[in-house]
UniProtKB/TrEMBL annotation:
PROSITE patterns: HTH_ARAC_FAMILY_1, HTH_ARAC_FAMILY_2
SMART domains in the record: HTH_ARAC
Residue ranges of domain HTH araC/xylS-type in the record: 229-326
Pfam families the record matches: HTH_18 (PF12833)
Keywords from the UniProt entry: DNA-binding, Transcription, Transcription regulation
MF terms in GO: DNA-binding transcription factor activity; sequence-specific DNA binding
Species name: Pelistega europaea
Domain of life of the organism encoding this protein: Bacteria
Record-annotated membrane-spanning stretches: none
Key word DNA-binding present: yes
This protein's name: Helix-turn-helix transcriptional regulator
Disordered: annotated segments: 1-22
Length: 326
């Protein structure tokens, strides 16, 4: 504990505090635009991107299952980009600027200070929100996909305590910096370049995981404990996509007002917003992975008319259910 306290003093500019996503403003007096993460991804590939962002941001998914995305961005507007995420591990390499994000109702503000490696380990379904501030330049690369190797390698051995801490922070090494700079460059479209990028993605993930292994026992990082998961587990255990607020409150044997308060305290958003996230997440999964028709999914999500479901889905994902089904 003494060692951890010392580390916290060394990284005193790292900030963690409660946050709220239902306010009209987040970090300044300017209006904040609220987007779903799928909308943000679509935005970066649309003709409207120059009205929102300056710079470039790329998303790459490799055959190995590794996802690498990143770039140099300066937002032209304040934006909160949110999504409900399942359990996952995400490595973020912050090269310049400041990273601001929230997990449920906890806000994290991390300055680059010469370069940082941030490991985000989310044990169970949570609301993840990235906060982008107008005029605040950020250079970063994010890497996901270690879960495949965790499942294969640790079948008969003890898996490291990946989820003991929600957020870990380490100083960026020269080798990892060099690997990240590779992904910030433009590459020609050839088979060689695809293989080269895949090899570097594996190399980068391996180096990031080695950083975790080197520090997991020594506790030489900024330690932040996981928030209580009991309430999330309760909600997920009873959730039905067709339900309304009254159904949830009845199943939990609490009043609607108490349910609203607890969701606000835990996730930092209203129960209406939480239900919307959950219903749309269910709808997207059903459209991609089930044989249900759009009408059946609409009914499952509690909509009386398919047109209302289609409108809500398009507002959330920036595409129609039919486009997902194609």
């Amino acid at each position: 504990m003494q060692q951890t306290a010392s580390i916290n003093r060394q990284t005193e500019s790292f900030n963690k505090q409660p946050s709220s996503f239902d306010k009209a403003t987040s970090f300044s007096n300017e209006l904040t635009e609220h987007l779903n993460s799928e909308q943000f991804i679509h935005l970066t590939h649309s003709d409207e991107v120059h009205d929102w962002l300056e710079g470039t941001y790329d998303f790459n998914e490799f055959n190995s299952g590794i996802h690498v995305h990143g770039g140099v961005l300066t937002p032209k507007k304040n934006m909160d980009c949110s999504r409900m995420v399942d359990s996952y591990v995400n490595f973020i390499v912050l090269l310049e600027g400041q990273l601001r994000f929230s997990i449920n109702n906890h806000l994290y503000e991390i300055p680059a200070k010469g370069g940082r490696i941030i490991m985000v380990s989310i044990a169970q379904e949570s609301l993840f929100t990235r906060h982008l501030i107008q005029g605040e330049r950020c250079v970063k690369v994010a890497v996901k996909g270690i879960e495949k190797w965790l499942r294969q390698y640790y079948k008969k051995t003890v898996c490291p305590a990946v989820f003991d801490d929600t957020v870990r922070i380490w100083t960026l090494t020269p080798e990892i910096r060099e690997l990240c700079l590779f992904f910030l460059k433009q590459h020609e479209n050839s088979l060689y370049q695809q293989l080269h990028q895949e090899a570097n993605a594996l190399h980068l993930l391996a180096e990031l995981w080695r950083t975790f292994e080197q520090h997991s026992d020594a506790q030489t990082h900024n330690v932040l404990p996981n928030p209580t998961h009991a309430f999330t587990q309760q909600l997920n255990a009873i959730f039905q996509p067709s339900w309304h607020i009254s159904d949830l409150a009845k199943a939990l044997n609490i009043s609607e007002r108490t349910l609203q308060r607890r969701v606000q305290e835990h996730f930092g958003l209203t129960i209406h917003a939480w239900l919307r996230h959950k219903k749309m997440k269910y709808a997207l999964h059903a459209l991609k992975h089930s044989t249900l028709s759009i009408g059946e999914i609409s009914y499952e999500c509690g909509y009386k008319h398919v047109s209302n479901f289609t409108q809500a889905f398009k507002q959330y994902f920036d595409c129609t259910p039919a486009q997902v089904k194609e």
